[in-house]
From TrEMBL:
Coiled coil feature spans: none
Gene Ontology molecular-function annotations: beta-glucosidase activity; calcium ion binding; carbohydrate binding
Keywords attached to this entry: Carbohydrate metabolism, Cellulose degradation, Glycosidase, Hydrolase, Polysaccharide degradation
Listed Gene3D superfamilies: Galactose-binding domain-like, Glycosidases
A single cellular component GO annotation: extracellular region
Protein family membership: Belongs to the glycosyl hydrolase 5 (cellulase A) family.
Protein name, as recorded: Carbohydrate binding protein with CBM6 domain
GO BP, sorted A to Z: cellulose catabolic process; homophilic cell adhesion via plasma membrane adhesion molecules
Domain CBM6: 454-577
Length: 578
């Protein structure tokens, strides 16, 4: 029921939008279609697909893809490593992924490219200065474009890993620090230009290619004594020069597509990069871990007004549902399109979670020096199972994340996470509180991470990092199964549930709790009235039911708010009986 309900809502909100088949273009401060109509891009980024970052795989070592690949090769050999990568890329994105994204309410996809799927590295070219072209990258892009066209979704090509790597944050571009970077090698820059020309040749007539994002998150200082990631640079001359050269190379072949530029310092430092040099250009910025207020995007609003250029939030995410909802609301209030990061990884705060199989967990433990080395056969089986887990049908779909991204910016109401129909008896998993933002479906002391704005340590919202991505702290009862409970409950926190009953009357409610103290106190608020206290006793950390209390429920829809009057207990389930 919850799935049907969510899909209906997203179709109601976004399904009626029709996009023209002409090219998107930058027209003054807006992105428009061929009819001159404003297009607000609602997108998702495919991190981990063509380019793996170590944190997405939860590895305990340096996070570049080539480092992970070396560790895999050490266990299974080169041939089986290539088999794993072929399976990973085949399974990670399929037509059903794109179909689902369309159904959920997205209208665009940002594809992070790794250049080495399109051409050889400079130091591996048989003939210096020549380019050997590889088919895999183009074929993967062709397939994704085909699925996007079938769903009338825009595909944005993003150069995420440039030849040599474009920054000191080595993971995001798979950079090997022992080799010349993009900025230290003219050959690397020429190869990047050649790749973009090849892409322009192949896709110049494709109207569902939304734009070319020329270089993801440069983070490199060009000025002595400044922060190495380029956040303090005042001129950025080499960056502007390369972006101009890339634009010129594309325009020699393709005069139709938008080109997207990103500043230094992970995309946001535009000192010396502006004014724009092309009439069909969009300024991208990235936003992570700061407040979602107008001040946080003020500089980009000013750039838009000053240079009459569209701006686009090209990458954001890796936070809580509260943060997602607030950030997207802020963007849409200011007519700024957005693209969320990522669609799937080994983690709970994205739409799709790739499950960690036992064999891969054993590999992680081995790499962390916590267990013995597995055999080659065991390691290969574990990796191939991980690749199988990357298929959407094998992923955990986090509907709470989708709800925060798609519905909540437009609709502030709490709606059921699962449909709860009470007949004789109903047991509700405590973690299945309603969908909605903090203050609507629940309240928790910490509901998002704002460490960039606060200057303090990163705030962890869901301390158990499982099941849902709200501020509510959820923990697994046993690491080997999916059962969860609500823990770390603090005074004044609460959870909201929706229950449907056939008949009005008196019902009994009890809680399945564990406690090792006599301080815990809770109460129930039924339909926003008649607070009923719940007696919480010391259970010596065992799971036990509290004594039932009597409440009145009306026929039809009822709301139950469970309030924490004093901390000191964990909550697994709520039982309602007639």
């Amino acid at each position: 029921m919850k799935i049907t309900h969510l899909i209906f809502l997203t179709f109601f909100l976004f399904g009626s939008q029709v996009f023209g088949q002409g090219f998107l273009k930058a027209e003054n401060s807006k992105i428009v279609n061929e009819n001159g109509e404003n297009v607000l891009l609602r997108g998702i980024g495919l991190g981990g697909y063509m380019l793996q970052e170590g944190y997405m795989l939860q590895v305990p070592f340096s996070g570049q893809q080539y480092v992970f690949k070396e560790h895999v090769e050490e266990l299974v050999g080169k041939e089986k490593t290539e088999q794993f990568y072929a399976a990973w890329r085949k399974n990670h994105m399929q037509k059903r992924d794109v179909d689902s994204l369309k159904q959920w309410g997205f209208n665009s996809i940002r594809l992070p490219l790794h250049y080495n799927l399109f051409t050889l590295p400079v130091d591996e070219e048989p003939v210096a200065g020549k380019n050997t072209w590889l088919e895999e990258g183009f074929q993967l892009t062709d397939s994704l474009l085909k699925w996007c066209k079938a769903n009338k979704m825009y595909l944005i090509l993003d150069m995420h890993a440039a030849p040599g790597g474009q920054g000191h944050d080595v993971n995001i571009s798979d950079r090997n620090p022992s080799k010349p970077s993009l900025w230290e090698s003219e050959a690397n820059q020429q190869k990047l230009i050649a790749v973009w020309q090849k892409l322009a040749e192949r896709y110049k007539d494709e109207t569902w290619i939304g734009a070319y994002d020329l270089l993801n998150e440069p983070n490199w200082t060009f000025e002595n004594g400044k922060n190495e990631n380029g956040i303090e640079d005042t001129e950025n001359k080499p960056l502007r020069k390369l972006l101009e050269e890339l634009t010129k190379a594309v325009r020699e072949i393709d005069t139709n597509h938008i080109v997207i530029i990103e500043g230094n310092g992970w995309g946001n430092n535009y000192n010396g990069v502006l004014p724009p040099w092309d009439t069909n250009i969009v300024l991208s910025f990235h936003k992570y871990w700061n407040y979602n207020d107008t001040a946080s995007i003020q500089q980009f609003l000013e750039y838009r007004n000053k240079y009459n250029i569209p701006v686009w939030l090209g990458e954001s995410g890796e936070n809580s549902n509260v943060w997602f909802r607030d950030a997207i609301s802020l963007m849409e209030e200011n007519n700024i399109g957005w693209c969320w990061w990522p669609l799937k990884k080994l983690g709970f705060n994205n739409p799709l979670e790739i499950k960690i199989n036992k064999g891969y967990r054993d590999l992680l433990n081995y790499w962390a020096e916590k267990s013995e080395k597995p055999s080659s056969e065991e390691a290969f089986e574990a990796l191939m199972q991980l690749a199988e887990n990357a298929k959407i049908e094998n992923c955990i779909v986090h509907y709470d994340v989708l709800d925060a991204i798609i519905r909540q910016p437009k609709n502030a109401d709490a709606i059921p996470f699962k449909y709860n129909q009470l007949k004789n008896q109903l047991v509700i998993k405590a973690a299945d509180y309603d969908l909605g933002t903090d203050g609507v479906a629940y309240h928790d002391t910490i509901s998002a991470n704002y460490h960039i704005s606060t200057g303090k340590e990163r705030q962890t919202w869901n301390l158990g990092r499982t099941y849902r991505n709200d501020g509510v702290d959820l923990f697994k009862i046993n690491p080997d199964n999916e059962a969860v409970y609500v823990g770390d409950l603090e005074q004044h926190e609460w959870l909201h549930y929706t229950v449907n009953t056939n008949e009005a009357g008196a019902y009994s409610i009890s809680l399945k709790i564990s406690s090792n103290t006599n301080t815990g106190k809770a109460s129930l608020l039924i339909n926003d009235r008649n607070t009923t206290p719940i007696n919480i006793e010391n259970t010596a950390d065992k799971w036990e039911w509290t004594a039932p209390v009597s409440v009145y429920l009306k026929a039809g829809k009822n709301t139950i708010k469970l309030l924490v009057e004093h901390s000191g207990f964990n909550l697994q389930s709520i039982k309602i009986s007639n």
